[in-house]
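Backbones bend. To wit:
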Amino acid sequence: MKLLRDVSASELIKIVNNLGYKVTRQKGSNIRLTCSKPNVKHHITIPNHEPIKTGTLSSISEIYQIS
């Protein structure tokens, strides 16, 4: 899949919300999301930047297997 470009943190949060993640906390410019599915505890940390750099998006998609 082609990697998205010029994605803001709020847009990325909407995308991962559809995968079952909810914002649990924010510290500085980092936002932490936690999976809300039963028997699963998984966290994603994304930077609150406008836009998120493509290298960061690539790493997030590879590490957390988001496509």
In short: The chain has two helices and three strands. The chain has a mean pLDDT of 84. The chain has one domain: 9-63. The beta strands are 21-27, 30-35, 43-47.
